[in-house]
Amino acid sequence: MNTDHPGTRFRRGFTLIELLVVIAIIAVLIALLLPAVQSAREAARRAQCTNNMKQLGLAVANYESTNGAYPAAYSTGLGGHPDWTYASTWGAWSPQSLLLGFFEQTQVYNAINFSLVSHGDGGTAGDLAQVTAITTRIASLLCPSSPLPPNTYYGKPNPGNSYFASVGSSLHWVGAAGASPNGVFMYGGGDNEQIIGFTSVRAAARGVRDVTDGTSNTIAFGEWRLGDQDDNRLSIPQDVVARGLGPPPGITDTWNDPKMNMPTGSAGFLQWINTCAGLAPAATSHGDENWAYALSWLGRSWNQGMFGWTLGNTLLAPNPPYPNCRISPWDGDMDSPGMYGLSSFHPGGGNIAFADGSVRFLKSSASMATVWALGSRAQGEIVSSDSY
Q: Is residue 54 domain-resident?
């Protein structure tokens, strides 16, 4: 008996093969679209990073206009250790901390007592009074493309600092030594300044008048990758190789030799960075008192006016195949001459902010000579915009 009725239609589902084809097509579309989505997200992060640096560039220009000089890293005159009675680069305040009120961080600025040290006085007085301020994580000092720094600082998450104040194309950062760094920023000393290892007095402040190469041609701030805080793992280029590395050939005084500025010391520079790279693979071993040879806390915080924390230099283009390098015969922090340079998580280069407040993208392919010229403020180099 035929039970079919006129007009009855049979519904037919997908076969297994058809379903697999559809899934495969969707997978291919996702594979094609995912890089575009990731690229769009990175473009947004890079735009925010650029905006952060724009704020810093404008802040330093406004600070100079208001005060007649650029900020430097200054000590308090109280030293950075309970046994010290003199001023020191250790515990000095950074240019970034002095600029807080110029990029909408007045509340943090007002919470700082600049007459006390910024860091590490052994817990006797100064730094503990600053904890609320110096442990504040400031979004405009962090590049969104960079992972946040792990671990803690005074018991709170590391604040981080993605943007260093540039001392120029110089291996040192002390402004009052016999060979002052050639960039916009420096360590400017403190009252009754005395520094072990070299002679120093409070340095003369620098202003627009001292940037004879032009504020639109002189880097004020550079970008670097935050350290991963893991001294047992080597991360290039951000880790700082910290042991067994002397100064470049031809430099006899790591504090006062004028050759610490580039290009006067350029003859041995390539040899020096290759020596540093050769030491890097073994740098994850630890030294005396458990100090690491591969310092992994670049950009840990924004408060201390010292190399590797808030001050850096312009010696190589962003993301070079070399680690950062510290010149020092002793184990310790990053308060030593060396290379603390440009790096980023942006493909192809990194951002730089000029002293006029403008921000540009510096390609990883830029030559050393171009990077040196952009970092120095008064060496008379002429750099065309198509060279970077």
A: yes
Contact 72, 50 (CB under 8 A): no
Distance CA 295, CA 281 (A): 13
The answer as to whether 126 is a domain residue is: yes
Model confidence, pTM: 0.86
DSSP 243: S
CB pairs under 8 A, 24+ apart, for 378-387? Answer: 378/182, 378/210, 378/211, 378/212, 378/213, 379/182, 379/213, 380/212, 380/213, 381/213, 383/217
Query: What's the structural domain count of the chain?
Result: 1
The pLDDT tens digits of the residues spanning 67-114 come to 999 999 988 755 444 444 445 677 889 999 999 999 999 999 999 988
pLDDT of residue 42: 76
- Residue-range definition of the domain harbouring residue 63: 31-387
The answer to whether the beta carbons of residues 267 and 249 sit under 8 Å apart is: yes
92 close to 110: Cβ distance less than 8 angstroms: no
Q: Is 367 left (phi over 0), alpha (psi -120 to 50) or beta?
A: beta
What single string gives the DSSP state of each residue in 69-124? S---EE--SS-SSTT--S--STTPBPHHHHTGGGTT-HHHHHT--TTS-SS-STTS
Residue 25 lies in a domain: no
Predicted confidence (pLDDT) at residue 290 exceeds the cutoff of 70: no
* Structural domain contains residue 119: yes
